[in-house]
Each structure stands twice: as C-alpha cells, then as structure tokens.
Amino acid sequence: MRWTTKEDRLIAEALVKNNNEKTVAFQAVADVLGISRKAVASRYYRKFPDLDLLAKDIIEERAYKNYIEAHKPWYVKLWNTILNIFNKNQKP
Question: Mind giving me the DSSP string for 48-92?
Fold first, then answer.
C-alpha cells in the first residue's frame, strides 16, 4: 500500500481523538482503510516524529478554532443562533 498524507492525517486524528491510546487509534484507522492494525502500527513507528507533530498541529488547530468561537462578539453569536433557528446558516 502506498501511504499518502491523507492516511498520515487519519492516524494523527485518531491519536488525538483516542487520547493517544495507540492500539485503539490504530484499530480505528485500520477499519477505515481496510488494512491490518499491524500495518498501521508499523507506519506509525516508522514515521512517529512526523505523525506526532501532525497530531500536535491538529490539537492546536482545534484549540484555535474553539478560542475563536468562544470569543466572538455577542451579536455575532445571536445572529448565528437566529439563522440556525430558521435553517438559513446551512452550508451547501
């Protein structure tokens, strides 16, 4: 199997989602990709510095998104709530 950055990002996201529980994360990725857990584990252990940095970037990305969402002005939050009530804020 040829590994791409998409699969690497899947591994990193699974590690973040499963709180760095490697066995559970590897099994989740293996189920999505349809390969063995051992293949995912060997990919991780071959590229773990890069994948750990990618996981750290994902955590920082989510933290920034949550920070931006939490610090929106009250009127923006109110307007988004009104739009959600009328289902006008749907992304196509």
Answer: HHHHHHHHHHHHHHHHHHHHHHHTS-HHHHHHHHHHHHTT-----
Q: Hey, what amino acid is at 68?
A: I
Q: What is the sign of the dihedral through the CA atoms of 13, 19, 22 and 26?
A: negative
DSSP for residue 21 = -
Structure tokens that stand for 22 in this block: 């490697």
Task: Give tens-digit pLDDT for 26-83.
Answer: 999 999 999 999 999 999 999 989 999 999 999 999 999 888 888 889 898 898 888 8
Phi and psi torsions of 87, nearest 5°:
55, 35
